[in-house]
Amino acid sequence: MGVRLMVVDDHRLLAEALASALKLRGHRVVAAAAPAAGAADLVIARAPEVCLLGTAAPAEPGVFDLVVKIKRERPQVAVLVLGPVPSPRGIAAAFAAGASGYVRHDERIEGVERAIMKARAGEAAVAPLLLQDAFGELLNPAAQPDDEAQRLLGMLTPREVEVLVRVADGEDTRRIAAGMGIAPSTARTHVQRVLMKLGVGSRLEAAALAARTGLLDRAGHLHPGPQ
User: Fold this and answer.
1) Tens digits of pLDDT across the chain (227 residues)
2) DSSP letters spanning 153-196
3) Short-list 66, 62, 88, 60, CA closest to 79
4) Is 79 in a helix, a strand, or coil?
5) What is the DSSP letter of 2?
6) Ranges for the Response regulatory domain (predicted)?
7) Is the dihedral of CA 32, 34, 35, 39 positive or negative?
8) Fewer CB in 10 Å around end: N or C, the chain?
9) Distances (CA, A) of 75 to 38, 95, 99, 167
10) Could you tell me which residues come within 8 angstroms of residue 94 by beta carbon, excluding any fewer than 6 positions away?
């Protein structure tokens, strides 16, 4: 027995081609529409068994707001996302929004159909290889040279980095000045500049931010601090 479907995609021609292929396989495709302001309302009004939602950027913020709205109004509609090879974040975002599955957009029609049947049955429709790749990336993340700690370190001068290390070690202005061989007023100025550049309001916040982002560890390698 065919499934009552709706196809929603950025590219109308692709949506219509997929709809036509599914019709030839005996499914009842009620509409093919581009995701615009009224797309979710259209799905809610038609209430298909399964909605195929195409996206080119599964990790972009807000891309699955459509899914959230559909599931809020029509929880019985299974939403199946069609997209590129996803990052773990993309898969997580789709399921967090309420999607029933994720299928690569270069999947053969037979694979799409299997996912549709699983989604309608209430099963998670995700290829094992996609999950394997996602878990592999989560367990062995690629190095990110432009991470938050590196970005923050790049904002500070070498002397300010040393000041931050000393602040995190609990040194007051007098000890910072003595340890660095500078006047207390100069040390105080350096501390204020560090707080301003890090966007925090106190020494405690600066130390916490440095520890949370790993900045303190990297800074410590450059400036081991007082012995």
Assistant:
1) 689 999 988 788 888 889 999 999 999 998 777 665 678 888 999 999 999 998 877 767 778 888 999 999 999 999 999 888 666 777 778 888 899 989 888 888 999 999 999 999 999 888 766 666 655 555 555 544 446 777 788 888 889 989 988 988 889 999 999 999 999 999 999 999 999 988 888 888 888 888 777 777 766 544 444 43
2) HHHS-HHHHHHHHHHHTT--HHHHHHHHT--HHHHHHHHHHHHH
3) 66
4) strand
5) -
6) 4-120
7) negative
8) C
9) 18, 14, 10, 53
10) 58, 64, 67, 81, 86, 102
Residue type, 21: A
Nearest-10 crossing angle of helices 184-198, 158-168 = 90
pTM: 0.58
User: What's the CA gap between 127 and 221, in Å, rounded?
Assistant: 43
Cα separation, 210 vs 99, whole angstroms: 37
